Automatic annotation (TrEMBL):
Keyword Transferase in annotation: yes
PANTHER family noted in UniProt: FI04487P
EC annotation from Swiss-Prot or TrEMBL: 2.6.1.17
Protein name as annotated: N-succinyldiaminopimelate aminotransferase
Source organism: Microlunatus panaciterrae
All copies of domain Aminotransferase class I/classII large, residue ranges: 26-377
Uppermost EC category: transferase
Assigned keywords, A-Z: Aminotransferase, Pyridoxal phosphate, Transferase
Cofactor needs: pyridoxal 5'-phosphate
Gene Ontology terms, MF aspect: succinyldiaminopimelate transaminase activity
Length: 381
């Protein structure tokens, strides 16, 4: 196969979800909730289909959704964008990431990214012919070393990809680190792509601050998010990118030839959710924090020491106390041993040794599902 798709094998999410189905296991692997988003959002999509909103929408997304994205960003963060020129609706954050990388990264360009990285980053950088330069957010603490981050920059650095709240570690970069990351990006005059799909899923005293809000950043940052996590609608694949008009124009040019446009009847529904769903999301956050604690307690009771994530709906454990050194081997055996599926960290690393002992567990599931998973896992202890 072509060199540029060398990282494009079957994703670990597809492999593990198939294993969950074939073994009847509880799936704490792939990150999707097992309950739906707000009723009014679902009803709006049903009505849109009934009303005949079923043909190609405008390329950049329908006006009311672009306006809702802009209003939401200004309401939550005081960051202002133009709904006509500075927003692009995409087929999930995945497409926004791919289009942004393909639009700006040339063969030979380097892309600095926090490692572990979400799997599509590696594939999209490969498709563009770029080179990944990982900066470790390694266990057991998953804390970024800013000196190492700065050392990653070379004359070839074209783009920096930041993901916070971070998948798979659940780390939320604190404001003082974001300020330093911003300073370094400005000093080196690079383009920044910020993946903020978990922007609203933060716990305890964590707050999410978009990198674009720091001095010198708005003009160089593509801020990407998605409705999948915020409104529990991962299958609708409605995401967006916000950036200065010149950048959005280039990303749109690529998007046209990836998918052309994105899901017509879902767009008015997500527009409504963004405009009217703040209370629903606030409840989701409280609920997820409780679920996080429930799963953490269960994992502790089997002798594991989960690092409590401050964001996302994923929790990480080191599986060495269970006699494994390789998380992939653990995850492939776990369904057969006790009927639970999890995701090995190492698939998110170039430095697989750094990720080998860690396993990620999703807690965006109904309480009874989490409780049953904990019961099954107790058999391993
Ligand atoms: N970035 C991160 C960090 C993710 O975890 C995910 C999906 N789970 C995505 C991007 C992709 O989002 P979408 O489903 O909207 O394409
Ligand atoms: N982002 C989700 C996760 O990290 C899954 C998305 C996918 O299957 N590509 O689990």
């Amino acid at each position: 196969k072509a060199d540029r798709v060398r990282s494009a094998t079957t994703t670990i999410f597809a492999e593990m979800s198939a294993l969950a189905l074939s073994t009847g296991s509880i799936n704490l692997g792939q990150g999707f909730p097992d309950t739906d988003g707000p009723d009014f959002m679902l009803e709006t999509a049903r009505q849109a289909i009934a009303d005949g909103i079923n043909q190609y929408p405008p390329g950049r997304g329908i006006q009311s959704l672009r306006q809702a994205v802009v209003d939401h960003t200004s309401r939550h963060y005081g960051l202002h964008y133009d709904a006509d020129l500075e927003v692009l609706v995409t087929t999930g954050a995945t497409e926004a990431l791919a289009a942004a990388i393909l639009a700006f990264v040339n063969p030979g360009d380097e892309v600095v990214a926090l490692e572990p990285f979400y799997d599509s980053y590696a594939a999209s950088i490969d498709l563009a012919g770029g080179t990944r330069v990982g900066v470790g957010l390694f266990g057991p603490d998953f804390v970024l070393d800013l000196a190492e981050f700065e050392r990653a920059f070379t004359a070839h650095t074209k783009m920096v990809l930041i993901n916070s709240p971070h998948n798979p570690t659940g780390a939320v970069l604190p404001p003082e680190q974001l300020a330093e990351i911003a300073r370094i990006c400005v000093d080196h005059d690079v383009l920044v792509v910020c993946d903020e799909v978990y922007e609203h899923l933060v716990y305890d005293d964590a707050t999410h601050v978009p990198l674009a809000s720091y001095p010198g950043m708005r003009e160089r940052t593509v801020r990407i998010s998605s409705s999948g996590k915020t409104f529990s609608a991962t299958g609708w694949k409605i995401g967006w990118a916000l950036a200065p008009a010149e950048l959005i124009t280039e990303i749109t040019a690529v998007k046209q030839f990836l998918t052309y446009v994105s899901g017509a009847p879902f767009q008015p529904a997500i527009a409504r959710a963004l405009n009217e769903g703040d209370d629903w999301v606030a409840e989701l956050r409280v609920d997820l924090q409780r679920k996080r604690d429930l799963l953490a307690e269960g994992l502790r009771s089997m002798g594991l020491s989960p690092a409590l994530p401050r964001g996302t709906y994923f929790m990480t454990t080191d599986v060495r106390p269970l006699g494994y050194h390789d998380g992939l081997e653990f995850c492939r055996e776990l369904p057969g041993r006790c009927g639970v599926v999890a995701i090995p960290h190492q698939v998110f690393y170039d430095n697989t040794a750094a990720g080998a002992p860690y396993v990620r567990w999703a807690f965006c599931k109904r309480d009874e599902v989490l409780e049953q998973a904990v019961e099954r896992l107790a058999k391993l202890g």
